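Lab notes, practical 5.
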Amino acid sequence: RCLVSHRLSWLRSWRSSRLTKRGIEGCHGELVEAASTHCTQLIFLNPGLETCRANNLRRPWEPHKYSSMEQQNSMLANLQLWVADYYGRDDSWSYKVHRKIFDAHTGAKVEHTVVPAGC
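Output from the prediction step:
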């Protein structure tokens, strides 16, 4: 909850920023929901489970999270399980919550179910 509170504080400062062309990405439903009332377009990237799992296998090293690519790869099995559970969970990181937020959004929105080549 403390982390969510910190991120919501960041979101409030993001909304009040003078920069007009900004985007946020993330799986945190509560943040997307809070930002959705201030966005010009809500985009739901929903390519399906197998595409997401395949993307995980191509992830570049994230040095801000892991000290080495080997350490990152040691977490891959856990990540794959977490992604596979996306459609079964009901927390703020779940398909159920993301779908609810997207469907309830009354502004401009688009859902992408196919990943363009090269992405």
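Observations recorded by the TA: Residues 44 and 99 are 8 Å apart (CA to CA). The first helix runs from residue 2 to 16.
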